[in-house]
Write a sequence for this structure.
């Protein structure tokens, strides 16, 4: 079981593809939240999926800070 880290600074970057419907659903959460970042919702969903299997401590989720939505990325501007 993974122990809580000291925050995202000690984390590992993971990049992956998701179906367009998943991305649209997360975008809807961002819009409804008033500016919480997409990354925050992805991290929360990942932890919610891992916790029932006992693969991460509940403190891991509590240690993750909510981040604000950034402006458009270069990819989004094109």
């Amino acid at each position: 079981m993974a122990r809580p880290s000291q925050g995202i600074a000690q984390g590992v970057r993971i990049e992956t593809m998701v179906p367009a419907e998943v991305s649209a659903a997360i975008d809807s959460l961002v819009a409804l939240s008033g500016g919480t970042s997409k990354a925050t919702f992805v991290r929360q969903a990942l932890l919610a999926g891992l916790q029932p299997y006992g693969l991460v401590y509940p403190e891991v989720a509590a240690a993750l800070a909510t981040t604000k939505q950034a402006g458009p990325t270069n990819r989004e501007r094109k």
Observations:
- The two ends are 42 Å apart (CA to CA).
- The chain has a mean pLDDT of 79.
- The chain is about 45% helix and 0% strand.
